[in-house]
Amino acid sequence: QALKRPGAWKLLKDITVKMANLEVGLASSEEQLDSVPAQRWGAASRLLMGSASLAIVGFIAFAAFSRQPGLKGALDSVVAMDAAESTDDAAESDHKMYTLGVGSACRVNSSDHETIGPPDGLILHGSRSMCMEHCLNSDECMGIEHRESTQRCEIWNTVVGAHDRVFMHRSVTGVADFECMVKNPDCEMSKHQHEIIKRAVDKQLEYVEAHCRSGPIDDDLKSKCARIYSADLLNADIEYCGLKNKLCGTSKDCTPK
Questions:
Q1: Is 210 exposed, middle or buried (0-12, 13-18, 19+ CB in 10 A)?
Q2: Is 105:148 a contact under the CB 8 Å cutoff?
Q3: Euclidean distance between the first and final Cα of the chain, in Å?
Q4: For 130-139, which contacts have Cβ atoms below 8 Å and span 24 or more sequence positions?
Q5: 244 Cβ contact partners less than 8 Å away, ≥ 6 residues apart
Q6: What is the average pLDDT value for the chain, to the nearest integer?
């Protein structure tokens, strides 16, 4: 598996060739110094040291290429948005918000890319917690979309039928720090949203293994290797899988990839 990583065979081949060339070169030097006994040990020691050094380099390179970062590396040192602080009224409510993670944008359906507007919703400006509390305290609200960098809040008074991972295709200007949340999803809604999440996990895993050499641990939100995107995607996978099990009476394994 390790040698399936791009460039692994080439690197190991180059190291092997360099090692062979070094051994030949040092061996020739040793033969030329046969008439000087005091120097013979010096050539031999250089040969051993050179071979050992290249062997160490080869081992390090092999270990680096054999590493399969996956997406779970993002969870080891995740930089997450601050958790929202709810008001007393919101805290006492039976309503709950389930986030789809940073990098997600709410959609009416899978083909929708329009901005929400009256009568289906309204746009406010404020913090993430304010946006959540407005929805939790509204009987009409069914979900929200908040953007941290602009403090823009969309209040959805219609069903959040789907969501889009906007960080994957850079369809927005600036950083993709959108976050979609669904209020009190039922069984069918949790199943539908989880199917979208699972496809996104597979797609992000493929991208990370091909382009993020150290795994998804970048702090630059303009990069698809940013840890927050992969970490929140996995957290959403775990949360919606558990929610689906609870609401639909299933017992699927929710272990992340």
A1: exposed
A2: no
A3: 17
A4: 131/155, 132/84, 132/86, 132/90, 132/97, 132/181, 133/84, 133/86, 133/87, 133/90, 135/97, 135/181, 135/183, 136/86, 136/90, 136/93, 136/95, 136/97, 136/183, 137/87, 137/89, 137/90, 137/93
A5: 187, 190, 191, 194, 250, 252
A6: 75
Name the more confident of 11 and 257. Answer: 257
Structure tokens belonging to residue 175? 């950083």
The pair of three-digit structure tokens given for residue 174, joined into one six-digit string: 């600036």
Using an 8 Å Cβ cutoff, are 218 and 212 in contact?
yes
Residue of higher predicted confidence among 166 and 171? 166
Give 184's DSSP letter: S
- The greatest distance separating any two alpha carbons of the chain, rounded to the nearest whole angstrom, comes to 97
Predicted confidence (pLDDT) at residue 162 exceeds the cutoff of 80: yes
Q: How far, in Å, CA of 253 to CA of 79, rounded? A: 26
36, 191, 222 from 243: Cα distances, Å: 79, 9, 30
SS3 track for 17-85: HHHHHHHHHHHHHHHHCCCCHHHHHHHHHHHHHHHHHHHHHHHHHHHHHHCCCCCCHHHHCCCCCCCCC
pLDDT, one tens digit per residue, over 71-114 is: 555 554 333 333 344 444 444 567 899 999 999 999 998 777 77
